[in-house]
Amino acid sequence: MLIAATGHRPDKLGGHGVNDEQLEGIAGNYLELMRPAGAITGMALGWDTRFALAALAIGIPLHAAVPFEGQERVWPWQAQQLFRSILSRCASVTVIS
User: Fold this and answer.
1) Across all residues in the chain, what is the average pLDDT?
2) Do residues 71 and 36 touch, judged by C-beta distance below 8 A?
3) pLDDT, position 19
4) At what angle do helices 47-58 and 20-34 cross, to 10 degrees?
5) Beta carbons within 8 Å of 28's beta carbon, 6+ residues apart
6) CB count, 10 Å around CB of 40?
7) DSSP string, 10-56
8) Cα–Cα distance, 9 to 24 (Å, whole number)
9) Under 8 Å CB-to-CB from 35, ≥6 apart: which residues?
10) Dist CA 12 CA 48 (whole Å)
11) Order of all β-strands in the sheet with 2-5
12) What residues contact residue 46 under an 8 Å CB cut-off, 6+ apart?
């Protein structure tokens, strides 16, 4: 079984009182429970990134489905670095468009 995830961006999450560590914990708990053979995400800021980090932390092969080349270029520098770090640890990276 593969699990794919996408969700809200940080500007949409702030009003819910959820922070990065909480998101990663929620994703990790779910992935631990389901134990998929792999995880897929689009690598956007927010939930996608935290889901990716949780999968990597547990040792679940991560597959990135990046919407387009340079998706991260308009993000803050720190987010760009995290994006590249995650991609370097993925089992596969596919640029969709």
Assistant:
1) 91
2) no
3) 78
4) 50
5) 54, 57, 58
6) 24
7) HHHHGGGT--HHHHHHHHHHHHHHH--SEEEE---TTHHHHHHHHHH
8) 14
9) 60
10) 13
11) 2-5, 38-41, 62-66, 92-95
12) 7, 8, 9, 10, 12, 13, 23
Which residue type does 51 have? F
Of how many residues is the chain composed? Answer: 97
Hey, what are 43's tokens?
A: 């690598």
Strands 2-5, 62-66: pairing kind: unpaired
Q: What confidence tens digit (pLDDT) does each residue in 33-66 have?
A: 999 999 999 999 888 999 999 999 999 999 999 9
Which tokens hold the place of 88? 């370097």
> What CA–CA distance (Å, rounded) separates 61 from 63?
7
Tokens of 52: 């990716």
Q: Which two tokens stand for residue 83?
A: 């994006």
The residue assigned the tokens 């980090």 is 53
